[in-house]
């Protein structure tokens, strides 16, 4: 009879330890999954914002050469330029190119900036310098 009681206690103890270990692993796995998913979502959102910034800069690049550009377009272009340090703070080449563009606003510096931005989010390698330099304007 004592053998069955001992066997029952050992079985109950083993079951309890197994439940604690299994529960602990389940909680640890859930925490890891939430952290990984959050990190992946953050990276995806930053990439989305980078792509949107590159597209907007490309769309508003005509503003750079226009002294008479409407104020709302100038504001949009400047707003996108001001996003660059936050979105590409980990890329020294991009930060140097944006500083160079702000120091001297030329087509070549804008093209260099767009190319360095494109390395980290949007492939613009198939575009030539002429594609990036020339803009479509109606007179």
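-> sequence recovered:
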């Amino acid at each position: 009879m004592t053998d069955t009681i001992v066997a029952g206690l050992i079985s109950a103890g083993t079951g309890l330890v197994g439940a604690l270990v299994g529960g602990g692993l389940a909680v640890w796995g859930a925490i890891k999954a939430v952290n990984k998913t959050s990190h992946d979502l953050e990276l995806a959102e930053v990439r989305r914002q980078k792509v949107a910034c590159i597209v907007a800069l490309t769309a508003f690049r005509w503003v750079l050469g226009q002294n008479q550009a409407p104020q709302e377009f100038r504001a949009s272009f400047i707003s996108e330029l001001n996003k660059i340090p936050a979105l590409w703070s980990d890329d020294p080449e991009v930060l140097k190119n944006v500083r160079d563009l702000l120091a001297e606003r030329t087509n070549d510096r804008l093209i260099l900036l767009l190319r360095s931005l494109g390395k980290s989010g949007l492939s613009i390698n198939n575009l030539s310098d002429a594609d990036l330099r020339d803009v479509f304007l109606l007179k």
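The CA atoms of residues 85 and 95 lie 6 Å apart.
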